Amino acid sequence: METTANNLVTVEKSKTSKIDQVDFDNLSFGSIYSDHMLVCDYKNGAWENPKVVPYGPVSLDPSAKIFHYGQSIFEGMKAYKDSEESTWLFRPLDNHKRLNISAKRLAIPEIPEDYFMEGLKALLKVDDQWIPKNEGSSMYIRPFIFASGQGFHASPANEYKFMICLAPSGSYFSGKVKVLIEEKYSRSANGGVGYAKAGGNYAGQFYPTQLAVEKGYNQVIWTDDNTHEYIEEAGAMNIFVRINDTLITGPTSDRILDGITRKSIIEIAKEEKIAVEVRKLTVAEVVAAAKDGSLKEMFGAGTAAVISPISGFGFKETDYDLPELEESYASLLKKRITDIQYNKAEDKFGWRYKL
Ligand SMILES: Cc1ncc(COP(=O)(O)O)c(C=O)c1O
């Protein structure tokens, strides 16, 4: 057993490695896991020291509250290798902050910044060889916290596990997506948990998304729960709409996740002198723009795909196609942000974090 320089994280190395079984040229997204994981237990009112241990199953009592009350939250982030094989993170402290925002909303104890960052760094160091070096590939990082404490009473648990797992992943691009603007179901509600990355938010999206897939769409565009008149998010991504040459995205609220990609895109677009409006956007405005030809682009923005361009949308039994653009904002912004992430371009904003 080793400990990190500051004695915070202990490291127990796996005796064997699965790395030889991995085809790094054909990685899918988030479906194979590295040799180690981080585990940190909350017991007796305090977080214990984080431990890097061999990757493997977790044993829980059937009465653990995660199973009954869904007290669980997560994050999604990536580590990137540059051409010199240095490793970089992108705005990792924002992920830590957001994990604690989610924790507070779900009555989960907050995780200290050094436990998160030192734990993550120790894990990435042990599994450094697992971080993909191929163009477009990266290490998808999944930090999560769940209620491991027991009891059938509906109240917060007294024990939790904070864990981080690593999934070397290929680029997410799977072509343009066709989306359905949702008129009945909601992802989140006023005063609810939409702004948190709570596991249950995603479970609640599955059924309406299945219905949309049955109708021939890939994803759902979520609208506000009250009137279904306002565009809010695209699947598990923030949404941007380009009308003429203006890029529009809704303001974050207690129904919308404050995406790190979204806020980075807003900054980069402004720097590119693209007109950006952060304001409420109605479905009616988007439909009218599609009809008069001023709707140029729509895309989702999130860590996994970075930018996911939309080819068209369905609304009230009618499909609207978007034009194919030679020089889209989507491809310009994706290149700008990924060049910063992979240390290929100057980082004026100070977003890169060297490991
Ligand atoms: C609901 C939702 N919206 C937006 C995003 C995009 O956030 P980020 O750019 O921080 O990955 C995510 C993914 O994390 C999400 O789950």
Automatic annotation (TrEMBL):
GO terms for biological process: isoleucine biosynthetic process; L-leucine biosynthetic process; L-valine biosynthetic process. Keywords: Amino-acid biosynthesis, Aminotransferase, Branched-chain amino acid biosynthesis, Pyridoxal phosphate, Transferase. It catalyses: L-valine + 2-oxoglutarate = 3-methyl-2-oxobutanoate + L-glutamate; L-isoleucine + 2-oxoglutarate = (S)-3-methyl-2-oxopentanoate + L-glutamate; L-leucine + 2-oxoglutarate = 4-methyl-2-oxopentanoate + L-glutamate. One of its GO terms (molecular function) is L-leucine-2-oxoglutarate transaminase activity. Pfam families: Aminotran_4 (PF01063). The modification N6-(pyridoxal phosphate)lysine is found at K197. Its EC number is 2.6.1.42. It comes from the Bacteria. InterPro entries: Aminotrans_IV, Aminotrans_IV_CS, Aminotransferase-like, B_amino_transII, BCAT-like_C, BCAT-like_N, BCAT_family. Pathway: Amino-acid biosynthesis; L-isoleucine biosynthesis; L-isoleucine from 2-oxobutanoate: step 4/4; Amino-acid biosynthesis; L-leucine biosynthesis; L-leucine from 3-methyl-2-oxobutanoate: step 4/4; Amino-acid biosynthesis; L-valine biosynthesis; L-valine from pyruvate: step 4/4. Its cofactor is pyridoxal 5'-phosphate. Belongs to the class-IV pyridoxal-phosphate-dependent aminotransferase family. Acts on leucine, isoleucine and valine. This is Branched-chain-amino-acid aminotransferase.
